[in-house]
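in:
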């Protein structure tokens, strides 16, 4: 399973995050990205949030006004199957970066401005129980820790490490 970086996203805290062409990923996350609630978001086990562009398209088809960066992801991917993502998987991004998925993101009230039904559209009882058979598996994205820092840019390959 290989894909690529569709978009890199940062903000000064909160949503949405805005596209950048390239950046440096450190153990703390994508340089220039800030968290509105650092006691909840960020930290070494949640340094990055990745979401598939295909998942965003699924949410858009449900009538949710969505685009890359709007869910707070640092990396919007393309060509990867979110239903195959699992905690513990390691991914190489570009020529330098290696990350490891740590956990699925549970959507919070910060997403409510996108519509009251967004949380239910992304996350259900099966997902909460860790069941990848759910059709919603991975729609909310996966957090990752950074094993090897480095530079990334839109278009970089993402492949198993």
């Amino acid at each position: 399973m290989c894909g690529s970086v569709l978009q890199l996203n940062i903000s000064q805290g909160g949503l949405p995050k805005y596209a950048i062409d390239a950046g440096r990923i450190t153990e703390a996350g994508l340089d220039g990205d800030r968290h509105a609630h650092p006691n909840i978001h960020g930290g070494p086990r949640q340094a990055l949030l990745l979401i598939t562009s295909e998942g965003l398209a699924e949410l858009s088809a449900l009538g949710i006004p969505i685009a890359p960066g709007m869910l707070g992801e640092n990396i919007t991917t393309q060509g990867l199957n979110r239903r195959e993502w699992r905690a513990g998987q390691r991914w190489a991004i570009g020529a330098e970066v290696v990350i490891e998925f740590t956990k699925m993101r549970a959507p919070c009230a910060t997403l409510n401005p996108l519509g009251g039904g967004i949380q239910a559209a992304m996350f259900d009882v099966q997902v909460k129980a860790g069941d990848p058979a759910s059709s919603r598996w991975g729609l909310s994205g996966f957090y990752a820790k950074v094993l090897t820092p480095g530079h990334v840019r839109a278009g970089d390959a993402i492949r198993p490490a």
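note: The CA atoms of residues 101 and 120 lie 23 Å apart.
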